[in-house]
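Record 1 of the preview.
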Amino acid sequence: MDVVTDSRPDGRRLRGERNKEAVVLALLSLFDAGEIEPSAARVAEVAGVSERSVFRYFLDKDNLDSTAMTLQWERVKHLYDGLDDTGSFDERLTAILEHRLRLFDAVRGVMTASSVREHRSEVIRTASDLRRKILRKQVARQFAPEIADRPHVARAADMALSLETFLYLADQYSRATLRHTVETTLRGILGEH
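->
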């Protein structure tokens, strides 16, 4: 006699998975809205679950942060690709500025929250370090001819194009001023006027 098992997922398990995802999405949306250190109660409110549920789905804040950073990476990793590193200096400069501005727009909220929290969280610090490493390699490829065995120039160009620099400038100036400031800085650093 064949035994037929019901392969339909348990309703409670599905609801739990949806609620867990809602908690993570709530945290990321709060970061995007500028709430850097939302409480568990605030996350629960936005997620539409009880505060107790937040800690039912996640062991602690590090576990929630880890899950959120993984989801954030999945949401934005495609933005790290597609940078054209060919052409004249002006073409490569324009390409990286536009690429970096698009990335900044997509990650600003989460990056702001991460920068405040990374000194307390190994998970966030690791994710931030990975992001910086990827962007540093982009700068090295984009301006290889101008950097050519000048590590101090590579470090200065990396700093000018860091998302931390963009955040600092965006908090004080218009987007046009931010872009112009970074472009002028890079022209000075890389010796192209």
